[in-house]
TrEMBL record:
Range of residues in the leader sequence: none
Compositional bias per record (Basic residues), positions renumbered to this chain: 1-14
A GO molecular-function descriptor: kinase activity
Chain positions covered by the region annotation Disordered: 1-20, 50-69
Keyword Iron in annotation: no
Record-given protein name: Cysteine-rich RLK (RECEPTOR-like protein kinase) 8
Alphabetical keyword list: Kinase, Transferase
Domain (Reverse transcriptase Ty1/copia-type): residue spans on this chain: 186-433
Superkingdom, natural source: Eukaryota
Amino acid sequence: MHISRLSKQHKGHNSTHQTFHQTLDGHDKFLDLFDSNPTNFNHQYLQSAELSSPEHVQSNHEPETSNTYDLNQLTFDTASDPATGSTDETELDPVIEPQMPIRKSTRPKHIPKYLEAYQLDSPHQTNANTSHPITKYLSCHQLSPAHRSFTISLSTIFEPNSYQKAVAHSHWKEAMDIELKALEDNGTWSIVQLPSNYHAVGCKWVYKVKLNADGKVERYKARLVAKGYNQIEGFDYQETFSPVARQTIVRMFFALAAAQNWRLSQLDINNAFLNGELTEEVYMELPQGYTFKREYPTSSRLVCKLHKSLYGLKQASRAWNSKLTTSVLKYGFKQSNSDYSLFTMKTHNGDFIALLVYVDDILIASSSIQAKNDVKGYLSSEFKLKDLGKVKYFLGLEIARSPEGISICQRKYALYLLEEHGLLGTKPASTPIDYNHKLVKSSDEDKLIDATSYRQLIGKLLYLTFSKPDITYAVQVLSQLMDKPGLKHLAAAHRVLSDWAGCPDTRRSSVEAEYRSMAVACCEIMWLKSLMTDFHIDHPEAVNLYTDSQSTIYISKNPVLHERTKHIEMDCHFIREKVMAGLINPLYISTQSQLSDIFTKGLQPRQFHFLMSKMNVHDIHSSS
């Protein structure tokens, strides 16, 4: 320890927030005293010891013959020598160590590089690098306790994953009772003893909170599901295929309804799969929470013999679709040959009505209210259904109708997708596709350890293309890399960036690619014309098909066959037949105005937004 001697004029330089450090010249003498008689030392000095704190620091008004030592936070009165009783001739004063101020760094703070793509507008950041931080507009401090509790409850929706967790809540128990009652009223099963040569499939409860378009809770739904993965093909099930409506026909259904001013309404079949009749003999274990209506022998193994289909069975969807199709055809509808999910008819009064079926969701388009009500009455007599009125929310699509037409939006679905992947605060990109970006298959070193999240994201982005056709090409390219996706592919999926137009994997020349694209478009045109016939709409005129390749137009109109075109597959040449028959009219359009470029290549932001304006896609949140 350092030994210092100060004159008397330095006394008094003390503070309530300073610590005094002092040692004695007779340090060895002090230790000898303690070693010779530790008991006497403790008795004399520890009685006067007190904790050294800012309140006990000695002031400059003390007698000059008294010094204070801060040794292990104990204060001793050392006015005299404990051994001789005499006073030390040299007065020692404490050394005052000034308190050093805390130095705060003046270096500018920067956001970490891995967070540069995000808008960090959180209430904890008072110096947000934005002109309009979120704390200026969003706060819960002025909410009442009741309203604050309600706000918190909106984000605490509980969906149990087991029967034991669900039965503890009254609303889930009520939902299970409703489901069991519906199964019994429908005659879904009968309680029997399991035959010796049959096996019983298991079952489980699945719980789901049904939400409205605005995110509010609509109802709590419990569904009893059979474990169909225990079924044996050829023994307790045969065929499983069931048709559903394609995105193209759903979009066309709304487009024709807007153009023809048809009335739209929506129906939902309650417990739809329970209406399908089984042709196979299927047995199922008793569900949890089931109570017997009468007594059965306790020695036998009781199971449910299924008479009607149940959710989870391999053939459940097919059995329900067969039942619905039979009932609709019996009323007088005609099933479309272009799409088996579409049913149309024309009444004796000349009214037109169409049904579009997607599993248990049914869209009705009619030219008169009476025709629509008649169909609803018939279907309600055949099945238990819910009349949802005007179409507002269909298959995750938010539908809005005005005198100008029908708009389709997937706002809720897009927000859910962003929240699921932690991208709600991401910085928006000017285009979904980088102009010069190239994606190729990843090597074994770069591939993702678990590609499940990537594949799930691509599947959800594919559904998002229904209302965002501008990301169609990017999602299509990313879906080709699901075999061995890498980190760069996952990053590209988060930004929906890719470019396949100049990919070295393609083997086609520019003219051949354009010609094949025209052939694919021709197939789609012919299918749509056939579909319009089912809607009782004629289109005798030739359909204009635009391309920015003069060579492609020349090949489609003339039987050209030379070294540069003979390698084109012969199945592409049927477009020439449609052109000669007057069904297709190929026309030239400049590359700058070619709308299909947004689906086939990466574009500069200016060109991208120009083509977006031609697609009739609008930002409803834009200020302009």
